[in-house]
Amino acid sequence: IDPPPSLYKGHPADPTLGVPPTCPSWLYIGLLHTILDERLVGSTKNKAGDVMSNPFTIEIFSTTGDPDGIRLIQKSNWSGVGVVFPRDSLNEVLNEDYAQRPGVYILVGDLAEETIYVGEADPISARLKQHLKKDWSWGVFFVDSHGLGKTEIKFLESELVKIASKEANSILTNRNTPNRPNMTRQSEAAAIVFLQEMLLIL
Q1: CB atoms inside a 10 Å sphere around CB 47
Q2: What is the C-alpha R_g of the chain?
Q3: Rounded percentage of the chain residues whose pLDDT exceeds 90
Q4: Cys-Cys with 120: which of 156, 157, 161, 201 at CB 3.0–4.6 Å?
């Protein structure tokens, strides 16, 4: 994902964690949190105690030919899809097939300080329409080609809000803090994997 350079905090990256050096600050912290918190993602270390990473491919498709316009982001061996878009392309995004599916979204503003809003919706387009009059610069939403259940979406929203709230250099504009839903072990495992893949793309 390539939002405006002003949103980058330029954290030095540890190559063993696969964190891009231009990763926005709150996502950098979130990625570290997700990788290192074994209660959330399970063990990511080999027998020698080193953090492991697997190579993967990210495919970016510009739907309009504009590299700063609407972009579809897909990762190898993952059924999820990320859609990145600038504010002025919101009306076009609302017509995307992916926007008619359930998922989670993030809206980022660049006023006096970086602002972040995290939400969920089914479909995504229904909630994005409600943000037309709000201040934000660019957004991204994630859906799954096989469909996400309401419980999984609520889980993803609550975890993203938790990650964003720990970033001191950004302002989380969510008025309410979503609760982590009650889930079966199978649903939670699937949602955690989806979250891991999302953070790798972000």
Answers
A1: 5
A2: 16
A3: 55
A4: 157
C-alpha distance from residue 47 to each of 40, 43, 52, 97 (Å): 20, 11, 10, 44
Angle at 150 between CA 147 and CA 91, to 5 degrees: 65
* Gap between the Cα atoms of 117 and 70, Å rounded: 19
Q: What is the pLDDT of residues 54-77, one digit of tens each?
A: 888 999 999 999 999 999 999 999
Question: Bigger pLDDT: 154 or 175?
Answer: 154
Per-residue confidence band for 160, with pLDDT thresholds at 50, 70 and 90: very high
- For the chain, helix, strand, coil in percent to 5 are 35, 20, 45
Closest CA to 155 of 114, 117, 107, 193: 193
**Quick check: helix, strand or coil at residue 87?**
helix
Is 146 exposed, middle or buried, given 0-12, 13-18 or 19+ CB atoms closer than 10 A?
exposed
Q: What residues are paired with 51 via a beta bridge? A: 45
Residues in the chain, total: 202
- Kindly compute the dihedral angle of the four CA atoms of residues 42, 44, 46, 47, in this order, to the nearest 10 degrees: -40
> Distance (Å, rounded) from C-alpha 202 to C-alpha 200?
6
Residues 197-201, mean pLDDT to the nearest whole number = 91
**Strand ranges of the sheet holding 58-62, from the earlier edge strand across to the other edge:** 58-62, 71-75, 80-86, 138-144, 103-110, 114-121, 170-172
Helix (H) or strand (E) holding 56, with range, is none
